[in-house]
Amino acid sequence: MRGRAHVFGDDVNTDEIIPARYLNTIEPAILAQHCLEDADPEFAAKVRPGDLLVAGDNFGCGSSREHAPIALKAAGVACVVAKSFARIFFRNAINIGLPIVTCPEAVDDARAGHELEIDLARGRLTNLATGRTFAFPPFTEEIQAIIAAGGLMPFVKGQLGR
Q1: Are 59 and 82 in contact (CB under 8 A)?
Q2: Alpha-carbon span 24 to 19, nearest angstrom
Q3: How far is CA 155 from CA 22, 42, 91, 159, in A?
Q4: Digits of tens for pLDDT over the chain (162 positions)?
Q5: Which of 28, 40, 94, 138 is the most buried (most CB within 10 A)?
Q6: With contact defined as beta carbons under 8 Å apart, do 55 and 107 qualify?
Q7: Residue closest to 14 by CA, chosen among 55, 67, 84
Q8: How many CA atoms lie within 13 A of 69 on its CB side?
């Protein structure tokens, strides 16, 4: 996958990803309209399908709402690259089929607007603006299959033949 970087700092919490005032819906299109609006009011207007979100430590901390990764995915974010993730966000992202990558060196190298290319299967991220390539631990085959299916529920339905 290849996309343009949108860069955020440390400790971006789920209330910043999707403010609590919009939690009266689970409708992805509505959540996408308000994604990250308190951190960057222009984010929903700037992000394009396939773009990448780059962040510092502890991305997705806070409450355990699935709304946060749903909002990101619905807004068009193809992958989140961070120095580290809150454990519950990590699990929720996988469950809804949003790829996330832990790669601190790539985060330090990226700037807003940089074009990044990610090979999830091989565990490689290349910053096309700087020419640098970084390695990260690739997901297990099982997690790759969940992401490829579009999330845990579609994966399970596929396993059950539904």
Answers
A1: yes
A2: 11
A3: 28, 34, 15, 6
A4: 999 999 999 999 999 999 999 999 999 999 999 999 999 999 999 999 999 999 999 999 998 889 999 999 999 999 999 999 999 999 999 999 999 999 999 999 999 999 999 999 999 999 999 999 999 999 999 999 999 999 999 999 998 987
A5: 94
A6: yes
A7: 67
A8: 29
Q: How many CB atoms lie within 10 A of CB 13?
A: 17
Dihedral (CA of 102, 104, 105, 111) sign: positive
The predicted model scores a pTM of 0.94
